[in-house]
Amino acid sequence: MISINNVQKSFGNTVILDGVSLTINKGDVVSILGASGSGKSTLIRCINGLERLNGGDIKVGENSVKNKVELNEIRKKVSTVFQHFNLYPHLTVLDNITLAPIEVLGWEKSKAITKATELLNLVGLQDKSDSYPSQLSGGQKQRIGICRALAMEPECLLLDEVTSALDPEMTSEVLDVLADLARSGTTLIFVTHEIAFARKISNRIVFLDEGKVRADMEKEQFFSNDGGRQDPRIKRFLDKMDSK
Ligand SMILES: Nc1ncnc2c1ncn2[C@@H]1O[C@H](COP(=O)(O)OP(=O)(O)O)[C@@H](O)[C@H]1O
Ligand SMILES: [Mg+2]
């Protein structure tokens, strides 16, 4: 469904992604792990065309991020949830969720509202549709961020450290929603430092190190002593995370 082929990305003279290739299949739940600065966010931004590639290609279905018209098609199929929510402060929760389906997909307002209401129920925030973002907690904002992304009925959801600005209680309410999505077969590409959670919901783990794919393994294999942990770099990363 998504093919990432030998992607190169630099900022100035600094190489950030150095020949990254990955294939994401429908229904995959792929966690992307790696140290801070390893290029995880840059990869996510390349997939939805927020960064221009210096080499290689990324295709979603038949569409390439390198073609402007095709990128618009990709943005209808791939939605992103950001670490800092990025909700529109001047719009109500309902308007935040219905805006893109109406503007980008051309839905009737009533259809968009029905969908939004369904999603608000899913994340347990059905009573917040008339609230403004400033009236919500961080965990609630992020659940709305997820609703907004899902309102586009995307084929794939990109999530970049969506819980790292949240306290533990709010983190768990957001992770619960994501676990439900993973079970329901939504394709997820999930950048996280929540290793235990990644281990629970993913079927595959990708480990990025200095802009390269250091491991791309089935989950069980990645965490086993004779799999991912045989790589000293990965063992060091996992041991450090375990001790946190
Ligand atoms: N717009 C930018 N301009 C210059 N350097 C950047 C930019 N965005 C990211 N970088 C650099 O790219 C590297 C990888 O960043 P990032 O993809 O955010 O890593 P991660 O998400 O894994 O922490 C970092 O060294 C960061 O400073
Ligand atoms: Mg990042």
UniProtKB/TrEMBL annotation:
Residues annotated as domain ABC transporter: 2-235
Entries under Pfam families matching the protein: ABC_tran
Coiled-coil spans in chain: none
Domain of life: Bacteria
Record-linked InterPro entries: AAA+_ATPase (IPR003593), ABC_ATPase_HisP-typ (IPR030679), ABC_transporter-like_ATP-bd (IPR003439), ABC_transporter-like_CS (IPR017871), MetN_ABC_transporter-like (IPR050086), P-loop_NTPase (IPR027417)
Keyword Transport: yes
Keyword field: ATP-binding, Nucleotide-binding, Transport
Gene Ontology MF term list: ATP binding
Membrane topology: Peripheral membrane protein
Compartments where found: Cell inner membrane
Family: Belongs to the ABC transporter superfamily.
PANTHER family: AMINO ACID IMPORT ATP-BINDING PROTEIN (PTHR43166), PHOSPHONATES IMPORT ATP-BINDING PROTEIN PHNC (PTHR43166:SF4)
Name assigned to this protein: Amino acid ABC transporter ATP-binding protein
Organism whose genome encodes this protein: Vibrio plantisponsor
Source species taxonomy: Bacteria, Pseudomonadati, Pseudomonadota, Gammaproteobacteria, Vibrionales
